[in-house]
Amino acid sequence: MSMGKTVHPSSPPGCATPSHGRPPARLVPVAIAAGGLCVLAVGWVLVGRAESEVNKVALASAPKPVTAVVARATTYREAHTYIGTLRPWVEANVGPQFISAYVDTVLVRPGASVRRHEVLATLDCRNASASSLVVAAEAQAIDARQRAIAHESTRLNSLLDGGFVSTNEAEQKEAQSASEQAQLAAQRAKLTATDLAVNDCVLRAPFDGEISVRSIDPGAFVRPGTPIVTIVDRNTVRMTFDVPEVDFEAVGQETPVSIHLLATSKRIRGAIARRSPAADPDTRTVHVEVDLDNAAHEIPVNTTGEVEIQVGPPKRAAAVPLVAATITGSKAALFVIDGDVVHKRTFEIEGEEGDTLCLETTLKSGSRIVTEGRALLADGDRVAPKDVPFGAALSSGEPTAPAPGPRRAEP
Q: Which of 101, 150, 209, 386 is deepest in the core (most CB within 10 A)?
């Protein structure tokens, strides 16, 4: 047996046997190159996607989204507005006028309807009643004495012709009778005064009406002039207000007015019933009243009302929503749309009615006006307007200053 290397017949001569599971050395550079290309491809895709989302158009040159409304033709009349008070036709504070006493009963409360001469309250007038009885008794005693003296004077005068009594004695008795008659008259006048005090203890309604205020409760001490209850008659309500002296001609009798009742949020119409012929010397205002029928008692009295009086003839104007204007003094600035470009223009204010602004007719009817989005606009900007109805624009938009003066548009 010979010792030496074992030679496999399948192995070629001069070649080593390759190890199993390892890639050939020539494949490693190929794999590295392929991985690099994959990384470059993914990076190129990501960069392309990022660049595709970049806006290369300047924002300032893009049209700005706004809402627009079309100006419409209308008419307006200048109107003056005054604040006044709705007063009852008659109002009375019911309380004692002659005596001071404790309140015994108060029979009514606010809201109660009462008739004329109906008892409203009573006072504890036992002292006044006793004084009245004393005066009545004294008057009765004087009356009895006067009658006796008068009869005696008559008898003495009948004896005067026969010489049975002297003339002086008859004249003295007649003078005494006249004196008693005068005392009786004075006592009766005093009795009348005490009767008034007694009657003052029962307080009655001076007219048909309603109780508006109850000021005093039973047990309180009242003096002359202290009101216990207040009664009002509001079958007719007087709208009272004062106007500056320069408006004297505008508030002539029978001038139609529109009154907004703040208490009920209702609007009613009437006509001026009376106007003071003179102005108040301190305030230089003229007092005016309007009579309103209130048989149904729907109008509460001593409440506030706004009186609107239209003056001057109606005029043509262009109406736009108030939210579309920036007001400075008597001028309004608007953004008027011309195609896809806006121009800032200024117009004279003619009037105002609620949320509607009336401008001079140089603003043509049919012009498109920017409402929402005008805060970001400048003259000459491009816009992408969205048209909205005129009524919808009245309740939206940006805040604006109120129009100057009391001018109002005719509805």
A: 209
